[in-house]
Specification:
Distance between the termini: 31 Å
Largest sheet: 2 strands, antiparallel
Helix content: over 70%
Structural class: mainly alpha
Number of helices: 7
Oligomer: single chain
Shape: globular
Amino acid sequence: MAHLASWLIRAGAFLGIAAFFVPRLEPSPGKGLESSLSALLWLAETTDHEVFFIYAAGLLAPLAACLLLMDGTGGRNGASPLLRWVVLLFFLAWAFSLATMGSLVATLPSATGGDETAATLLLFAAPLVLATIVIARVLGGSNPVSTGTIARGSIGLLLFLESIYDFRSPLNSGWGAGALLPILAGALIVAGATLALARPERAAAVPVAAAAEKA
């Protein structure tokens, strides 16, 4: 089961990396589908440095997240403490960035009403809830391995939610079949993390049951 969980996370991370290069979204009517890479190159040619760095951070965040998760669950004993903290801090930075973006997009006239409002509120609220859960576990002294796994699953959930948001985002006018790649990637990462979290719980239940039988 541990190997399956690790490979699910790796498969999701691989799909998330591939999604960076696949045309997925249509930024304006009639412009055609663009990949994150082509959008990044276009921004580099048409915007000033400050604006470019802001947009580049948003476009590169999913790619960086998936690269961090290519080690799966990090092995039998979890990832190294350094990598665990890197994943954790990256997740928190990305979560608060997405929440900030959601609050800013909510002020756009095109984001008020219908599914656009629901999608924007989800992008704002969900990252804050996930970040609160992870911070509470860190401050509460929970098992660092399981906390790291929760951070990995939360990254997958952010990838999933951000991709769902793109379908109804007022910043995009259309999408293609490639937009399903990051959704599938996020779902696989969440499934792998959930499986990894369930495994130690079942292992811990064995000594408890044995002790109860002896008593």
